[in-house]
What we know:
3 strands
Amino acid sequence: MPIYEFKCKKCGNVFEEIFRSSSEKIAVSCPVCKSKKAEKMMSVFGGKIGNTMPGGCSSCSATSCSTS
Ligand SMILES: [Zn+2]
């Protein structure tokens, strides 16, 4: 199941929503302020953000780590 991370534009709260399918209509509301003005961020797995930069592999010593 895809997990999407959202950031509330009203209060800045960041929360995750799990969708049963990638085609499911995205209509989320902030769990804190109930605002529906949340912007979708990059999908994350395991809470890691910003680890998709090419050549940014820091978890292994290989020169070309392309596992995805
Ligand atoms: Zn909010």
